Design the sequence.
């Protein structure tokens, strides 16, 4: 531990050292990336294993970036395959979809953690605790731990520490599964996830790295970083073509820009609690 380490990082490192061997649920977003990196720094790769759950709800680019980060940072990493869509409660996409998704994740991580004699940890931070998050409930029920919460770290702490450590993930948008682009109450299917994935991949290929494609049947609502909106309007023909190639008939650009905490909502159906 460096003597000049910021206090939040000192608390995080101390908590991880006390926790012992860990399996990190690693999605590649800013939160789980910092947790995997610090856990590896504190415990060493022999006692810290990063696991990425791979399924149709994970964007191919996210899986590839997890592998790239593991290579860059010397993380011990491997993917595991999960099958959320096999659960009718998940596919129905009710308000508790994240509970069933996280339950499937913990089911897959359980045997790995047992073999490692390790504790499963997630990158939930203190600012996540104010909302009703069914996924957090599922994780706690399965015995997972939240080191950021235990160290009192919020989102600003995560980003500040990540930036100070020189991690390229410090300003990365929250990593949310592709199902989060689908309004609550609209069934999640393999076709829907594939359309969202292909639309987002097409837009990234055009040079828009930070985005969400919200699924509304035949209509795609595109959220981009505010600084990219003008460019998207200038290149609207390319944007429309990329999204239509994924299967959508209608393409809209959300002028409010990318809001990582925004939800895909349909009137009368309430709010999707994951972004």
Sequence:
């Amino acid at each position: 531990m460096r003597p000049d380490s910021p206090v939040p990082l000192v608390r995080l490192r101390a908590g991880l050292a006390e926790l012992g061997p860990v399996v990190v649920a690693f999605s590649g977003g800013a939160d789980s990336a910092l947790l995997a990196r610090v856990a590896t720094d504190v415990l060493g790769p022999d006692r810290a294993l990063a696991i990425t759950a791979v399924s149709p709800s994970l964007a191919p680019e996210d899986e590839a970036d997890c592998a790239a980060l593991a290579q860059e940072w010397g993380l011990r990493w491997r993917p595991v395959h999960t099958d959320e869509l096999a659960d009718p409660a998940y596919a129905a996409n009710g308000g508790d979809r994240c509970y069933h998704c996280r339950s499937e994740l913990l089911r897959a991580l359980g045997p790995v953690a047992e073999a490692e004699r390790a504790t499963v940890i997630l990158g939930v931070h203190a600012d996540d605790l104010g909302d009703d998050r069914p996924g957090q409930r599922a994780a706690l029920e399965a015995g997972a731990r939240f080191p950021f919460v235990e160290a009192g770290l919020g989102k600003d702490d995560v980003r500040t520490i990540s930036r100070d450590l020189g991690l390229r993930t410090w300003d990365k948008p929250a990593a949310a599964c592709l199902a989060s682009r689908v309004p609550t109450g609209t069934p999640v299917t393999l076709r829907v996830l594939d359309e969202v994935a292909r639309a987002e991949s097409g837009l990234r290929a055009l040079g828009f790295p930070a985005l969400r494609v919200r699924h509304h049947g035949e209509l795609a609502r595109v959220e981009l970083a505010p600084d990219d909106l003008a460019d998207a309007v200038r290149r609207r023909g390319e944007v429309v073509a990329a999204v239509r190639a994924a299967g959508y008939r209608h393409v809209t650009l959300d002028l409010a820009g990318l809001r990582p905490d925004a939800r895909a909502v349909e009137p009368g159906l309430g709010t999707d609690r994951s972004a």
About this structure: The longest strand covers residues 48-54. Residues 97-116 form the longest helix (20 residues). The beta strands are 22-25, 48-54, 76-81, 119-121, 211-216, 219-224, 250-253. Residues 261-275 have pLDDT under 50 and may be disordered.
